[in-house]
Amino acid sequence: MRNSASRLVALVLGTLVLRMIWASSIGLGTDESYHYLYTVHQDLSYFDHPPMMALVAEIGPRLLGGATSAPAVRLGFILLFAGSTILMARLTASFHGERAGLIAAAILNITAYYTAAAGAFVLPDGPLLFFWLLTLERFAAAIREPERPGRWLGVGLAWGCAMLSKYHAILLLPGIAAFLCIEPGTRRALWRNKRGPLLALLTGLIVFSPVLIWNAEHGWASFLFQGGRAVNSGGLKFRPEGPLAALGGPIAYLLPWIWLPLIGILIRELWRIPAGMFQPAQDHAEIGRRLFTATAIVPIGLFLVIACIKPILPHWSLIGYACLIPLLGLAWGSSPVKPGFRLASMGGAAIVFAFIFWIQTQTGIAQKTLLQGMDWFPSLAQNPQVKALTTPSKAAVDPSLDSFGWDEVARELERRGLLDRSGTFLFTGNWRDSGQLGYAARHSKTPVLCYNANDARGFAFWSRSTDWLNQDGILVSMDEKLNEPGGFRAWFTNIEPICDRVLERSGVPARRMRIFLCRNQKLAFPFDRAYGGGVVSRIAATAGETSHR
Fold first, then answer.
1. Shortest CA distance to 468 belongs to which of 488, 439, 443, 496?
2. How many CB atoms lie under 10 A from the CB of residue 469?
3. Distance of alpha carbon 229 from alpha carbon 124, whole angstroms
4. Which of 69, 381, 469, 540 has most Cβ atoms within 10 angstroms of its Cβ?
5. 3-state secondary structure at position 2
6. What are the phi and psi torsion angles at 155 (to 5°)?
């Protein structure tokens, strides 16, 4: 027991240090910069997500005296993932023993998305994972002593915080309901103690109430947006490639050597359900198997169905796979093959992948290699993918360029005296660029807006379009946007170009930066028009293609 505890502490501390190094080595991504602005515009909730992400993003700056560097903003998420590691170990150990718990915690730390993204970046999936696991851990304790109200209060608080993290947490309800359907012994025990589960449900809804209040005040915009992402606006048309994409998409996010055994475990456990669903579990380990299978199959199955009619993002179903990690920890712990070497080699592979991505962010080695290859093999220049990667106006195809150039934009604006200039605001034509600009200019008090009438995301709720009449706007246009600045001429008296530069990364052209002074806004740009019905539907219809969240 003591040996397992010391190994868990070593795992938590070691991976925490590695994650801090990782978080300090690259700038905030597009979604992260936008999410940082939640802390600037504090509210009960937000258009895209509930408020937990903003609360966690505040932890680092508060602990570090107001610092807002990338590692400072990410610190809360890194600490929370350390907690998720401990919870994974505790939850697994409560059903399958400490050896399985330690292995499951290690597996969580070698899955690409959870360890490198959700566990280190300003994304809602980190808080969701922590409070999802906490809900299951508290539920496991509650079903052992269902007559104790305090246990159920803990379940409700944890589930409420999960709901404040990401709307996916609503799937815990059908997941636990599915568990009770296949575990009659626990179902009967809870039926005799109905007040406990009802207390948990009521507590969770009370914790979640700020989100309900915000949505009620804003036409249920957030619920309509996120719900619309699961509905095909073009009607119910079966996509034969959808199920394969939904099951295979998470391969890169989990890494193949984790995904494949998890799928095998899921198939095995689903095969076992019909034979035992009418019989109470024989032991506590069997209860754990049924709980983990039920809470996994709901998100995996739901997004599998949605994928049949609409494209989905690969990470949407990952919380379901996380529920299977305890069973993988049990399997590897029971295997005659010692798990130490296997885990170490897989962890090493994850570190190598992260290092390669870091090299790309710093040097643009992919572009350098392709440009050299084009000198040797001119036919490469005709390949559309190669052309996109080596053209500064196509930065969107290279995620390593997410944060590149925006600090230089802020420095250019400061050199020209355009920051903190009276009667002036900054803006771009899409919410992603406005998020990056807002973070880059965070030390200035100059407002940052998103002038997009179709999809301004949270910017639509952070000010009114009429607030900016008779003021000057500074348009920042990154890369080659054909409608800029022409698309904004009708709203201003005149528009003057003041900067046009190609930014280089390690000597290779990477992005084009253009800045325009838009004088005297004469008409209110409708970025804040009502987010009801059609507008939200249009945003949701394309959200799966245009967002990483």
1. 488
2. 14
3. 17
4. 540
5. helix
6. -60, -45
Between strands 424-428 and 508-521, the pairing is: unpaired
Contact present, 514 and 415 (Cβ < 8 Å): no
Beta carbons within 10 angstroms of residue 412's beta carbon: 18
| Residue from 328, 361, 309 nearest 103 by CA | 328
pLDDT at 545: 42
Helix, strand or coil, per DSSP, at residue 29: coil
Nearest CA to 374 among 386, 388, 389? 386
DSSP 368: H
Distance (Å, whole) CA 161 – CA 255: 29
- Surface-to-core class of residue 494, CB atoms within 10 Å of its CB (0-12 exposed, 13-18 middle, 19+ buried): exposed
- Phi, psi at residue 507, to the nearest 5°? 85, 0
Tokens found for residue 317: 């179903």
C-alpha span between 421 and 409 (Å, rounded) = 16
- Written as one letter, the residue type at 44 is L
Each domain of the chain, given as residue ranges in start order, spans: 2-217+249-337, 364-400, 402-546
Contact 318, 254 (CB under 8 A): yes
- 284-307 and 325-334 helices cross at what angle (nearest 10)? 130
Q: Tell me how far the alpha carbon of residue 101 is from its chain's centroid.
A: 25
d(CA 157, CA 204): 6
Q: Answer whether 401's CB lies under 8 Å from 395's CB.
A: yes
Is 111 in contact with 258 (CB distance < 8 Å)? yes
What pLDDT does 548 receive? 46
> In the β-sheet with 424-428, what is the strand arrangement from edge to edge?
448-450, 424-428, 472-478, 508-521, 492-505
Cα within 13 Å of Cα(108), Cβ side: 37
| Six token digits for residue 441 | 């200019």
Q: Name every residue whose Cβ is closer than 8 Å to that of residue 153 and which is 6 or more positions away in sequence.
A: 199, 200, 203
**Which residues in the chain show pLDDT less than 70?**
1-2, 231-236, 276-277, 364-397, 529-549
Burial status of residue 80 (CB atoms within 10 A of its CB: 0-12, 13-18, 19 or more) = buried
Q: Would you say 46 and 222 are in contact if contact means Cβ atoms under 8 Å apart?
A: yes
| pLDDT tens-digit map of 354-379 | 878 778 777 766 655 544 444 555 55
Encode 375-390: b = buried (16+ Cβ within 10 Å), e = exposed: eeeeebeeeeebeebb
pTM of whole model > 0.85?
Answer: yes
